[in-house]
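User: My instructor asked us to take a sequence, write out its structure as tokens, and then describe one feature of it. I'm not sure where to start. Here is the sequence I was given:
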Amino acid sequence: MRDLWIAPAVPRPVPLPPPAPAGAARRPGRRWWLPLLVVALLSQMAFAMVTTAVRQTPTIDEPVYVGAAAEYTHEHRLRHNPEHPPLGKLLIGAGVTLADRHLDPSFTGDQGRLGRHLLYESGNDPWRLMLWARLPVIALTLLFGLVVFAFARELAGAAGALTALALYCFSPDVIAHGSLATLDVPAAGFVLTSAWLLWRARHGPRLYVPLAGVALGAALATKISALPAVPVLMALGAVSVWHASTGGRGRLLMRAAAGAAVVALAAVAVVWATYLVVDPRLRWAPEQHVPHVRGLRGLLVELLPFPEAYRDGMRVQFGLENRPWQGFLFGRLYSGSLWYYLPAALLVKTPLGMLGLWVCGAVVVIAVRRLRPAAPYVLAAPVLLLLVAMQGARDFGTRYAVFLPLFLAVGAGCVLVVRRPWVSRLAGALVVFVAVSSLRTYPYYLPYSNEAFGGPGRTRERLHDSNVDWGQDLGRLAERLRERYPDERVWLVYKGSGVPAAYGIEAGDPRGVHDGDVRGLLVVSDSAAAKATGRLAGLIRSSRPVDDVGHSITIYRR
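Assistant: Let's start with the prediction itself. The structure tokens for your sequence are:
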């Protein structure tokens, strides 16, 4: 009988990792330096965020989130703040619970009054409560730094990953908003995580496609503004599955469609699970008016497979978009919105070295053939989210585009794939420039602006609201008044959610008395000054600035 010879199965070749950039040859002990540098960068960021969080009083949005978070975790009911889904507030609520807060279950006010009642009228220490509420967001922000590092390392090697992580860790916007009990950085980080997992799904779709859907669901369950990323990430899921599959075109199309469907179904499941965690019976009795939405927006709301509370939150958001907001850009106060507001604000508030590396990184990701397959994963979601945000009605700050420092840090790390010694040196110099600019603004990250626009001390001349003054310096103001201006008459126009009396500030409202009676110190939040008209504008013009608190509040003498 003839011997049978069976050809061995030929394994599918596994793509090699990208070659390391020039100068990245393995050296003895290098395996230890890489994690040490990662730990050093994240430790610097943690120090900056925690020490900033300790000194800042509640910003405008934080009491709303903290109050709703306490309600979700303590009473397990959905009543307040439907315009933002529960996941981010559940994370905040974990910190609030550890702070051993006291909450009055019989309180019946709106969401703004609920937060102030919890912080100032329930026997809680507002400093301690706010710090504990911010700590989960700080921890999550640090974890997203590891995602930035891992994503960039897979594309550009260790040197590129360290460059990306350094840009992330020194980003003033990420530090500023990552140290607050707000939702912008968590939502952006979950979108980035989903894109990274979909990139990995090109070689492991069974594991990474569902995980990417979970990350997308976490973003959707944190902020409704993440919805425009859904079609992009579904398409990337289809592309990844197509790349990982073999067979005829029909079979590939079916698998690609299944990949997109898995991303969507996993995301929807996470959103439902989040609401069920708050209230397994999904009771929904909103405390605020929910507008009726017609047309295509109304049809979109009705078709989405989400809980009614989520869809009512979308209706509230659409209602907010229809309100006549005011904006402030480069000294001009205007009504409505400007399509170029966000690009202009980003030009002011992004370190100059970071802007240069962002542009170079985007060019390299598109132009270098080896990186071109990664371009949609790095650039598509942030570009679409930015375009959508630019059409919004609320010109309130770069926090609406805080996803850019995350995604574009990854792209910037790819610059080091270009194997030219001068490229590595230039990239290193720009990273150092970014680090110095960021360290110089410590601990005033919210009002940061780059050197071309005069630094944080002059941001108020060009921008307002969360770009400069979000109510964060009420505690610093109280300290300044005690130390430098004891026993002086104080008149205060404060834009924020804090309660001045809770920090020992005794002040009158100058808008309620005759101009001649306003004598002593006139203290005005810079956001209020930017939008000042009528009597307040006259009071400011006839006063002499004598002091500055945190680059967000100005003290005048009359």
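For the description part of your assignment, you could build on this observation: The longest strand covers residues 544-549. Try explaining in your own words what that tells you about the chain.
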